[in-house]
Amino acid sequence: MANTTPQTSSTTGTGPGEQFDAIIIGAGLTGLYQLYKLRQLGLSVRVYEAGSGVGGTWYWNRYPGARFDSESYSYGYSFSEELLQEWDWKEHFSGQPENERYLNYVADKFDLRRDIQFNARVASALYDERANRWQLQTEDGHRAQAQFLITAVGVLSAPQMPNVAGLDTYTGEWCHTGLWPKTPLNLAGKRVGVIGTGASGVQLITEIAKEVGHLTVFQRTPNYCAPLHNKPIDEETQKKIKASYPEIFKKCRETFAGMIHHFDPRSVFEVSAEEREAFYEQIWSEPGFRKWLGNFRDVMSSKEANDTFAEFVRNKIRARVKDPAVANKLVPTNHPFGSKRVPLESGYYEVYNQDNVVLVDLKETPITRITPKGLKTSTTEYEFDVLIFATGFDAVTGAFNRINIRGVGGQGLKDKWADGPRTYLGIQSVGFPNLFTLVGPHNGATFCNIPRCSEQNVEWVTDCIRYMREHNHGRIEAKLDAEGAWTAHVADTIADSLLLQADSWFMGANTPGKKRTFLMYAGGTPAYRAKCDEVAAKGYEGFALQ
Ligand code: N01
To answer: How far apart are CA 257 and CA 431, in angstroms?
Structure first.
């Protein structure tokens, strides 16, 4: 087994720095588990984490209202029975503070912190061909080397600001939902503007509308928001949950998106109009993503089928908003239901019935600039004490692009992926040996209840490294034909899907200048898992091992 003690030379300046078997970028949910597993394998490991604490998404997105939209008990790690039994989720859809506490609890329980370097944002990762090692440098000049580089950088971790002039002139407070300060902003009684009405904006707006003095919401595209139906977990339910973890995780392994929800095998048109309406009412009244991932099987593939549910949701929105003109602005019409991520809400539409809330439709009156006191649209000037950007992320590839990753021959990963990612299993890309991209582009874990699928990713990579060590292989790299076939297969998984019809982050379409291409994997969790298992069983078919 490997020497688990890192060898140290100069860690800054021009020397190679500390030596490890593996370096992991990111101490979120995925990176923590990868550290745990590689330690078990006897590897020396260092995690570099840009934040000052563990948690990734649940560290950075601490905006008011942030919470799971997966059932809490389907979200936690499944690898430790002891952890499962000793952790009590307090709510069916747990909020950010508890989620961050959970990940800290895990880090402490498994003594993970001693191998994590915090406040260390990786600036570059360069592959040294002769030595077959990755050379890392953090933004503050710290250097280290490892045989394996494993990215656990998250799907939604590169926050994106709108390209509007004048932010540097704004004198009030401002922040992005994905970079929310640890010391909470005091919004009580203040004039607040929020730009963006995706899942983050919807959660935030609902929460802060309870305390701000005046709220102006700038909406570009209305969404199909659906009720979350969150509630506390009582003692009896807690016991039931703890007794049924094996079934819960088994179910998650069998469903399309790693959640507890299965699509209904029927077509929208196999049932009568009355039955359909009753079914829609039923799923609408149930918690979580049932309305999306437990809907009729053709709701996500047939526009005609989708229209029936889209109209049902539109009517629900109209019924909740008192002013018909405002309701009209909130009703989505330019994309099918579920073709963008469905925001789950708890009183969102009622916010627009408050006297102190105004909705501005940016399609009618676009923002022209940020001003010292607020912002200007084509018709009106607004003044704010606080301006909040809920404008989303350069998704999936954004966090990779922000690191200078260079493989064989100095090729940049960003350059290679400029016309869209090319990967094998979403876990490797040709020209970047020994680099594993957990929950990366084209990976089954991206379009999934992430912990369920990131556990699969981590276990697969761990098994692969174990295999390499057992067979005396020092280098693994995807083969070109395997990469081509996988990349084509990823496109096939979405060929019949309505996901193609929206300008979403799934398609990279929310980032100006980014190639419009599907960034995830829509073949479903079971198919992805089966393919990964098959590749491993065939001695890592499609990879060149040396
Ligand atoms: O980001 P988004 P998000 N001018 O990209 C608008 C996950 N998540 O942070 O739709 C004006 O969805 C943009 O408008 P448009 C979840 O997977 C999970 O809200 O592009 N507006 C949109 O309204 C989610 O999908 C949870 O026309 C601009 C908004 O900003 C993902 O994170 C909670 C603009 C961005 O919406 C991202 O959600 C929250 C501009 N220049 C999030 N640029 C959970 O519950 C963008 N917008 C676990």
So the answer is: 30
Pick from 492, 444, 497: nearest CA to 299: 497
Ligand 1 neighbourhood includes 221 CB (under 6 angstroms): yes
Distances (CA, A) of 306 to 102, 309, 338, 450, 492: 37, 5, 9, 26, 20
d(CA 451, CA 436): 17
Ligand 1 atom nearest residue 197's Cα: 23
How far, in Å, is the centroid of ligand 1 from the Cα of 184?
21
Q: Atom 9 (ligand 1): residue with closest C-alpha?
A: 392
Domain boundaries, the chain: 7-54+112-158+395-545
Ligand 1 atom at minimal distance to the Cα of residue 164: 41
What CATH number belongs to 7-54+112-158+395-545?
3.50.50.60
Distance (angstroms) between ligand 1 centre and the Cα of 389 equals 10
Contacts of 275 (CB under 8 A, 6+ apart): none
Q: Closest ligand 1 atom to the C-alpha of 196?
A: 30
Q: What is the mean pLDDT of residues 56-61?
A: 98
Q: Where are the beta strands (DSSP E) in 206-308?
A: 214-219, 226-227
3-state secondary structure of 79: coil
Give the rounded distance of the alpha carbon of 321 from its chain centre. 30
Judged against a pLDDT cut of 50, whether residue 2 lies above it is answered with no
**In angstroms, what CA-CA distances link 532 with 79, 88, 142, 536?**
19, 33, 35, 6
Q: Whole-model pTM?
A: 0.96
The pLDDT tens digits of the residues spanning 271-321 come to 999 999 999 999 999 999 999 999 999 999 999 999 999 999 999 999 999
Q: What is the model's pLDDT at position 15?
A: 75
Alpha carbon of 496 to ligand 1 centroid (Å): 24
